[in-house]
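Exercise: predict the structure of this protein bound to NDP.
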Amino acid sequence: MSKTILITGATSGFGEATARVFAQAGYKVIITGRRKERLDAFKQSLPTCDILPLCFDVTQKDEVFSAIANLPHDYKAIDILVNNAGLALGLGRAPEADLDDWEKMVDTNIKGLLYVTRAVLPLMVERKSGYIFNLGSIAGNWPYEGGNVYGATKAFVKQFSLNLRTDLRGTNVRVTNIEPGFSQTEFSDVRFKGDKERADQVYKGTKALDKEDIANTIFTLSQLPEHVNVNRIEIMPTKQSCGGLFVERS
Ligand code: NDP
Ligand code: 8X3
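Solution:
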């Protein structure tokens, strides 16, 4: 019988690429996001694959729980959950940053991920089987200017992933925190609120990760034997490295 995967934020970037890899490998793929037209177009682009579009906003607790509770019977046995929906908003330093942006990142990257996890977990624990991939980031490991709340939300995701491992002892449910470096998706369009020129600058003259690099990593990890759990995996483009510490001088 085909396995089932649910991916949040499958309308773009890592989520969309992951959905494609698993769909083409014969999985039943539940794709979610707010942009219904993109979900429908994705399904149409793979007419021979088993794809269920499910439109909801991860920040809306009731929408999340109702969508999962009302899954058609054939899609309820979720084997893999990819908690991918997320965003960065702005790159301003903390004293000038927009408080609404901070709240939206917390609501999406932290609270949204918690709602989906809490809604899906019982379905896995009951079957004593499952695999959760959370999309963290190098921003949760390494500070950078303007990364303030975005990085902090991803540090939350990392620690939550590790704590889940502990709470899921005895259930066979695996958890991996995926921690990518900078990658060419719609991430910067969203961060810079549609300022295409600024977003394009991020990737200019270098080679970022492709969305497929992360999709393929998730797929490869998912194929490891059930007794293997990779807790965390940090992946950077070769062209990206850490900047070191800064010392103020007079
Ligand atoms: P994209 O902007 O390309 O994709 C983000 C996805 O998240 C979209 O499908 C979007 O769908 C979905 N999403 C955002 N808000 C919500 C919401 N409230 N409810 C439901 N879905 C939502 O970015 P990426 O693919 O790059 O990002 C995916 C994840 O990877 C994020 O968690 C991001 O923080 C993380 N990441 C990204 C890196 C990068 O450099 N690109 C590096 C490290 C981590 P829709 O708008 O249709 O709802
Ligand atoms: C996104 C990676 O380095 O742009 O999570 O913050 S970075």
